[in-house]
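ok trying again, last paste got cut off:
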Amino acid sequence: MSEKIALGSVADLPAGRGIRVDYGEHRVAVFRVGDAIYAIGDRCSHAEASLAEGELFGMEVECPRHGSEFNLETGLPGSFPATKPVPVYEVIVQGDQATLVIEDGAG
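nice, full thing came through this time. structure:
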């Protein structure tokens, strides 16, 4: 089973930086790159810093604490000190509305 959380209009999501969405025990970092929306776990797998507060470089977000980079599509770390991926969440865009999908057991 999955839960769907409305994120609002794609145009209203900030371009080039993240926002944090909390849903139950889930902390999700949401990013708009062009017209595409990506969502990954907000906690860095190395030091649990908020990835929504990190700097975006193309399709990678840099952890603000120790500089590990995570791919927005795969959640995989691209640099040390992080070695474990963060969860990746589905985002559905219909028209101009974006919806975050959280699957049971995700996060």
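cool. The two ends are 14 Å apart (CA to CA). The chain has a mean pLDDT of 95.
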